[in-house]
């Protein structure tokens, strides 16, 4: 019997594949048998594709801007040209802008963040859908910042809240197609985006404080998000649709709490 978690014979596009979560997802999906198109504007996408090939997997690479229609058309077409089909889209490329909410973010900054995180995600979905059929799966990277306040700046958090609704309304619009769409909402994960937070904490000797607000009391690894994405991409998640899966150590499951030993703990 085929293991439904496997992705053999499937073709996946991963945007933001040069580093962090996208890179981890690209590697894991390839390990599970998918052919992966690694897309990013950064050079690291080439390393990701090379790492997949060195491990015996199938990979393509496209360096382009995931926030433009032309860039998105280019990677979609390149995927079809190289692999002949499209089963999985992980729309993951993102930028954060300032991490602390400020009322003075300017319009250009707000525009740029929405353009990559929300409009770019929608454009990638729109470009992929005509080439997808029953059983295909789209996964968007949202964030706990899109669930409620406290985890990012205003433009970033609003963009990620938009992604969560984009997933819900697109699932609705896909009624009857058999194509699923879901999101993951990572908590704090050590990647290029958060390297300053981690470096700053290490410099101050406060690394042990990272992730202390969630019940698991630690930050997450890109590979832990990749596990959730690869699951949602697979037939093992065949009845999961329109959902946002928080992968955050329990952060969004709880109101703020003051850490102290619990009964029996
Ligand atoms: N790291 C976290 O704590 C965290 C938490 C929640 C959500 N996220 C989300 O995870 C996703 C991946 O981020 P990450 O944490 O792995 O950070 P990262 O900076 O390591 O990776 C993001 C990648 O996206 C690429 N990218 C950004 N804009 C692009 C564009 N216009 N065109 C092409 N490529 C572009 C970057 O070059 C980079 O390689 C993002 O959507 C981010 O918002 C991250």
Secondary-structure blueprint:
Blueprint: E1 11-15, H1 20-31, E2 35-40, H2 44-54, E3 58-63, H3 69-83, E4 88-91, H4 107-128, E5 137-141, H5 154-173, E6 180-186, H6 195-203, H7 222-233, E7 244-247
Parallel strand pairs: 1-2, 1-4, 2-3, 4-5, 5-6, 6-7
The chain binds nicotinamide-adenine-dinucleotide.
The site of nicotinamide-adenine-dinucleotide has 27 residues, from helix 1.
Summarize the structure.
This protein has 265 residues and is α/β, with parallel strands linked by helices. The chain is 38% helix and 14% strand. It has a seven-stranded parallel beta sheet with strand order 3-2-1-4-5-6-7, with helices on both faces.
What this model shows, in words?
The structure is a single chain. This protein is an alpha/beta fold. It has one domain (about 10-245): NAD(P)-binding Rossmann-like Domain (Rossmann fold, 3-Layer(aba) Sandwich). It is about 40% helix and about 15% strand. The chain contains seven helices and seven strands; from the N terminus they run βαβαβαβαβαβααβ. The chain has helices at about 20-30, 45-55, 70-85, 105-130, 155-175, 195-205, 220-235, and strands spanning about 10-15, 35-40, 60-65, 90, 135-140, 180-185, 245. α1 runs parallel beside α2 (about 45-55) and α3 (about 70-85) packs parallel to α4 (about 105-130). The chain is globular, with a radius of gyration of 18 Å. The mean pLDDT is about 95. The structure holds nicotinamide-adenine-dinucleotide (NAD). Nicotinamide-adenine-dinucleotide binds near residues 18, 42 and 67.
